[in-house]
Every structure is written in C-alpha cells, then in structure tokens.
Design brief:
Layout: E1 6-7, H1 16-19, H2 28-36, E2 39-43, E3 48-50, E4 58-64, E5 67-72, E6 78-84, E7 89-90, H3 92-97, E8 104-107, E9 111-117, H4 118-127, H5 129-154, H6 158-173, E10 174-177, E11 180-184, H7 189-196, H8 200-212, E12 216-219, E13 223-226, H9 229-235
Antiparallel strand pairs: 1-2, 2-9, 3-8, 4-7, 4-9, 5-6, 5-8, 10-11, 11-13, 12-13
Organism: Clostridium thermosuccinogenes
Domain Cyclic nucleotide-binding: 22-142
Pfam family, one: HTH_Crp_2
Amino acid sequence: MSKHTHSCEHCHHQSCARRVPIFSSLDDDELSWVSSLITTKKYSKGELIIMEGSNPESLIIVNKGKVKAFKDTQEGKEQILYIFTEGDFLGEKNLLSQQKATYNVETLEETHICLINKKDFQQLLREYPDISFKIMSELCNRLERLENTIENMGAKKIEARVSSVLLEFLDKYGKHHAKGTLVELPLSREGIASYIGVARETVSRKMSRLQDEGVIRVIGNKKVIILDKEALEREIQ
C-alpha cells in the first residue's frame, strides 16, 4: 500500500503545484498557498491508487511516475482507458459531482502523488475560477481521447490502431532525437494491446513491419524512435 505521507514542502521534487497545467494561471504567492495544502504519498509499481466504486476524497496529482486508469470487461479482460503522467490530475469526479470512481487506477512504475483534500479543493475553485475552466478543458480533452479510442476500435482497421497509439505517445512522451523522435512507451506490448483493443501478437507484428519499412526503430521493449511521422499519419487517414 501507500508509503509515508508528508507535506509537499518536504518533497524531494519541485512543488506539485508548479508542475500542473491547471494551476498555470496562478502567481508565485498563490502557488505557494496551493502548495501548503498538498500532502504526498509514494506508491510502488503495481499498486492501486483508486478502486472502481470508491469515493475519492482528494484531488490526486501525479508528481512523478505513470499510472493507468482501467476497467475490467465482462469477459474478465482489462481495458485501459487513460495513461496519466507527471502533471496530470485525477479523482475529481467525486469532488465535483459526488460520483463514485468509474475506473481503477494502478501505478505503472514507482509513483509519487500529491493530494489536495476535498474541502481545500472546493475552496480553490471558489477562489480561482480559472482553475475550474482549466479542469473543464482537460476533462473535455479526455472525453475526446476516449471517443477517439472508441472510434479506433470500431471504424479503423486493426493494424491502423497501432499507428494511432504511437502518434498519441509521440505527442505526449516524444523527445527530440538526431534521427527523429524518441518515445519512451508507457506500456508493454500487452498493455498497448489492452489500450487499443487488439491482440498482443497484432501489436508485435505491426511494430515489426513498421520497423522493416523504416518508419520506426524499436529499442528494447519500451522505447521506439519515430523516423517517419508522416507515414504513421497516412496509415490512420
């Protein structure tokens, strides 16, 4: 389970508040106040942060690491809905609408999270309406990504879904590389398969073909260099 809980001022990393896009409109004094509301927790890889049906009592911000939001299907399979990484927030549903958590959240690696309790979070929204608008904007973005996932699983050819998810990870995790864009994949091949609703073998076969065609270069299990972004984009059109 979660490890030691402590004030953010004792955190070894930058203040969570300064790393979160929804707080970007706040000045230094306001950020300092937000930071004073934060406590942190540390989780090991594979731990549940939120369980479906529970009632989160804090806004959760990923300070370091990555987590996945997922549901278990009727067939007993895992369907990954979102990947949250540094600066992302979650657990807002119960805080805004008294709605229970609609998915599980599990760490993909050692993860440090920051928490703002329900009362303080609601006070933040009253004090700073800009934060409310930024949260609504991010929730709309998530809805759009979920709609795209559903579209990918229905309308697009199965192998095109692999190209689509590589482009998604490029946008979020891509770093400049001399020969293209280096992407550290947040999921294993099996995880990617769960995320886009295909068989693991399909992911491996498609990535091997893309490598043979010079579109990507696979480095181990969790890194790829995107050599030809335009070729990936053509595949999903």
